[in-house]
Each structure stands twice: as structure tokens, then as C-alpha cells.
Amino acid sequence: MECQECHERKATLHFKHIINGQETKISLCEVCAKKKGYLSYPEEGYSLNDLLSGLFQKDGLNLSSAGTTKSNQSQELKCPSCGRTFSEFKKAGKFGCANCYASFGSKVEPILRRVHAGNTKHTGRIPKRAGKYIQQKQLISSHKEELKQLIEEEEFEKAAVLRDKIRELEKENHQNKEAGDNT
Amino acid sequence: MTLESFINEAISPWMLEDGPDKDIVMSSRVRLARNFADQLYPTSGNQEALEEVLQFIKKNYTQQEDTEQNSISFIPMNNLNMIEKLVLVEKHLISPHLIKHSDHAAVLLSENEQTSIMVNEEDHLRIQVYYPGLQLKKALEEAYYLDDWLEEKADYAFDETKGYLTSCPTNIGTGMRASIMMHLPALVLTKQINRLIPAINQLGLVVRGIYGEGSEARGNIFQISNQITLGKSEEDIIEDLESIVNQLVEHERMARVYIYEQSEISLEDRVFRSYGTLKNSRIIDSKEAAICISNLRLGIDLGIIENISENILNELMVLTQPGFLQHYANKALRSDERDIRRASIIRERLNLKK
């Protein structure tokens, strides 16, 4: 049966109207049905959320085809702090708390890789107040790179200065970390 | 309410300020998603946690100014009626999601409406900063300022390797979504946009129409934003986005010159027909209005039409949305009633000579 609107495509949707007891029927293709307003989509998040949870579901399928025992385990995986299970996460596409990442562990990694073009490591901003320890740690590791470079270039005097600076930073940061752990 | 005072309400003060490439780039926006470390996310549905976050923000963050001394006020969603909420959505100051979860939600809103911080949206905090024209770096700086302010009194959910932990995996890392709103009538008219969109998508950026449904760009207004939030720094993401936007601006300018030179008379015809429709129609739906408003703005940009403010596009796109029409009418309206109201508000606005 062809679409009654465009007369080109095949009609795949059939609608029945009853207005004041009078019945009318119309058969349309999906494109025309959308145009005529017969089909409506949820206003929010159809695209991204549904696509995403679709992606996550795929992971679930892969697991179950690898072996039933594994899929059972994945169902039991549950975040202890918010109670969200991994299958709930897959369905909603959302975590329930900050601990979900750690709770779902390696299962989250492939999802992140897929969503973020293969990236799994944050290289951006660090919280200004609480992140001092991390900021310092990154500074130290970049200094260490520099130090290696200086030694290779046999700039030993400069290297010695930098080495002392690193030691000082490391000492300071150790205290920072302890202070941070106590708060 | 007079139309003047109503327009003032519809147009956020920052929109009237000047910005680079403002004839094509309507606005720049930076949004940061943040969560507190020791509270369950709004997505957990835990009412107690939501209420605690709300009270914490109310108690600690009501007295503040942004870097330009605009005061920021705390507005609980439950203090607003449905139409007032819709108006905030149409001004892009809050999301539809926040309305649906009003019970424990609030917004911290700056006086000139340039910054809004949604509380208990999908994440505990959604910091949003707008700037007119192409000014993403400035928007990012302002967002950082508010970010630091919010982080002063509570620890964020942050992981050294995963970055800011968000409720949705698509935001993890920087938690940043930078977006640009652009008016691209000439690229649509010359059909170049169909070639450009897939190319831009391949660069990890997303192009979509706004004010329309799905991918349809109503009124030739497009939003371009970053897709990836992990593995790239905020500054790099913004730089990439800006360089693409600059290219689009250039293409749009060239296309405008091209269509003007190809057939001045048919372009004038298009512009004046739209002007005529807007000035005279008694019933107009939002789709037709959007097309005509876009043509009118193009006519203003090209000097075909004079004596009308170039802010007309920004103004009318907001004014003719359902929430605003109902706000102005001060009652709920059916869609056929809205089409009549829409036509009359446009006519009134065009008679305002400015």
C-alpha cells in the first residue's frame, strides 16, 4: 500500500480517527506522518540520551555473548554509596554519585573511550582550592622532565638548582597532602 | 504592561551590548557541570540529598557579585509559576529539565542575566555564562571566577585522571560545553550549509538548529558546540571551536556578498516580502515568523532596510516564543490564539521605530 500523502513511499503507519462517531482512516509513510504531526517524539533528550544508552546496551550484549557467568556478574555490580546497579546505569545513561566511576571500574572505560574519541585522561582544569596538591604534583613531574632534559644536555649547574627546587616542592607537597587528607 | 517594558524583560541586558562579529554571531556561552564530592547526584533521585544541596547553596551563596559587580540572586524554582519558568527557559537561562524537577531546584541569576547557575539540574551545579558576539575566552574566564567561588566552601567531585565527575559520561573531564549561536541565512540560501555541517561534525563539534525541532534550524539560527570533554583542555577546546566559527563567519560573509551580487533585486524582493508579512499579518505561526525575521535581519545587515534596530532578530525570536506570548497576554493561550498574538506583537514592535 502506498502512502496516501506523497503517493511515493510505502505506507507503514495506519491511523484511525473517530470524530463525533465518524470514522476516518489514513495510511502514511513515516516521513509524511511526521510532517502531518501524527508522530511526536519526546521533547527532551530523545537523541543523545537514547543514543547513549543504546551504546551502553551494546556493551552489555557483548558481555553476555562472551559467557553467561560474566553477564550475571555485571548484573550484580552495584555502587555501594548510591545503590545504583550497572544495568541501571546502562539504562539511564547516568551515574548516581561520584563513587559510581570507581564502583563500575573498568566497565566505564570503554564507554568513555567511545564517547570521547578514544580519550580517557583529563588534561584540563583542576579545582583551585582542593586541587593544590594535584597542581603541585603536576608541576613537580613537569620539572622532572625538564631535569632529565638538562642532564642530557649536560647543563649540570642548572640541573642542580632544579633538583633542589623539586626536593623542596616535594617536601612541601607531602605536607599539603597530609593536610588535605585530614580535612 | 507596555510593549517597551515587556521587551526589556524579554531581552537580557547583556544581549544589547556590542561584541565581535555580532552581525553573525549572536552569542557565546560556556557551561560548566560540577558536583559536590559527598552528596548523591540529582540523578540518584534521593530527595534528602537534593534538599541538603539546595539549603547549602541558599545559606552560603546568596551574597555575591560577578566580576562586573552585578549582584547574583537565589531563586527557588518553586517560587515561580509555570509561565515564569517557561520564560526563563526561552531566554535560555534555565533548562526544561530544571522545570521538570522543580521541587528541589533553584537558579542563581545575575542582575544582567549574563550568568546563571542552575542548582540540582542533572548535576548539582551548572554554571552558565553568556557573552554577546564571539567572546568565548571571556565567557570562560567569568565561568572560572564563579567556579572558584563555588568551590571555596565545598569539595567538588574530582578525580585526578577523570577530571570533574559528572552524572552523564558525556560531560566527564572538563564538564565544559562551549557553544556559539550563529545566524547563517546566506549559507542556508546558497545551500553551502549542507556541505559544511558534516565536515564540522567530523571535527568533534556538533551543529544543530535551535528554536526548531530536531536538526531543523528555525530562522537560520545554528548552535555549534564541542562534543568531547575528556582529553583536551578547556582552552584548547575553545580555541578549536573559535577557529571553526571564524571560518563560518567568513564563509557567511562571502555568501552574503555573492547572493547580493548575483541578484540584488531578488534578494531585495525576499527581504521586503518578509518585512511586509511581518508588518501586516494578522495570524502567523512560529515557523513562518522565524523565516521572515531572519530575512528581515539579513536585510538590515546588508543595508537594504534602514531604521530598524539590528537587535530585532534577538528580540523577536524570544518575544514570539509561546512562554513570552502567554506572559504578555497574562494568561494561558491555545496555539491558534498564540498565532494571533504573535502577529500583533510583531506589528507593534515594528511600529516602535528603533
Automatic annotation (TrEMBL), chain A:
PROSITE patterns: UVR. GO terms for biological process: stress response to cadmium ion; stress response to copper ion. Keywords: Coiled coil, Kinase, Transferase. InterPro entries: UVR_dom (IPR001943), UVR_dom_sf (IPR036876), YacH (IPR025542). Pfam families: UVR (PF02151). Residues 133-182 form a coiled coil. One of its GO terms (molecular function) is cobalt ion binding. Residues 137-172 form the UVR domain. This is Protein-arginine kinase activator protein. The gene is mcsA.
From TrEMBL, chain B:
GO terms for cellular component: extracellular space. The keyword Transferase applies. GO terms for biological process: phosphocreatine biosynthetic process. It is an enzyme of class 2 (transferase). A motif (RDXXRA motif of the pArg binding pocket involved in allosteric regulation) lies at residues 338-343. Keywords: Allosteric enzyme, ATP-binding, Kinase, Nucleotide-binding, Transferase. The keyword Cytoplasm does not apply. ATP binds at residues 27-31, 92, 126, 177-181, 208-213. Its EC number is 2.7.14.1. CDD domains: bacterial_phosphagen_kinase (cd07930). Residues 24-255 form the Phosphagen kinase C-terminal domain. It comes from the Bacteria. GO terms for molecular function: ATP binding; creatine kinase activity; protein arginine kinase activity. Catalyzes the specific phosphorylation of arginine residues in a large number of proteins. Is part of the bacterial stress response system. Protein arginine phosphorylation has a physiologically important role and is involved in the regulation of many critical cellular processes, such as protein homeostasis, motility, competence, and stringent and stress responses, by regulating gene expression and protein activity. This is Protein-arginine kinase. The gene is mcsB.
